[in-house]
């Protein structure tokens, strides 16, 4: 079982990766440059790659960590593995393909710091603007986000953005299931916590290939959406307090 041993950091960056040998090294160097002077770990969770993704991470500095799944388990499982292994209580996520510019991470961390004392904050979620994807993927994503938003009413227009900041404790308290990463805003709202949205840039893929097709996303999305709707409807909110016993009376027996 993985354990989060070691000295605490300000935050841990968790990156799920599958066959991203061409881009992962450059992405991690850009993260280091964007966050120079801050204390953090990077955990790349290699989800059963058959290329040199893990080797690229192992060749880097000591705060670049890699955890490897023996079989492919999916993006949500990879994020969960990284969060469990994290050495800090604050988690940052982004995708490994380079389409989430790491230069946007300070913007999300600033939003976290600005809002955490004002509301019961559970998640800062990036929302992509000026997306650099193929037209078919954009249409499919917009349709899926519209349907999901209408059904779940979580106030999020783009759940597919990998850039997110959240407490480790909050994530591990959420119901875990495959593809849960696409429903984090709704699950956080279900827990009674606040989601803050931040507009972020988006970049074209510089190497490798997408791991999903529009059809695959649609097929699993319908089943998952129904499941999350059920979870929200079955949620019961209650407030509990421990009752205190009255102080014991002293005896006057002589």
From TrEMBL:
A GO CC term attached to the entry: plasma membrane
Cross-referenced SUPFAM superfamilies, in alphabetical order? Nucleotide-diphospho-sugar transferases
Domain of life, source organism? Bacteria
Q: Which terms are listed as keywords in the entry?
A: Cell membrane, Glycosyltransferase, Lipopolysaccharide biosynthesis, Membrane, Transferase, Transmembrane, Transmembrane helix
Tell whether Ribosomal protein is among the UniProt keywords.
no
Domain Glycosyltransferase 2-like positions = 12-171
Which Pfam families does the UniProt record give? Glycos_transf_2
Record has Lyase as a keyword: no
- Example GO biological process: lipopolysaccharide biosynthetic process
- One MF term in GO for this entry? undecaprenyl-phosphate 4-deoxy-4-formamido-L-arabinose transferase activity
Q: What is this protein called?
A: Dolichol-phosphate mannosyltransferase
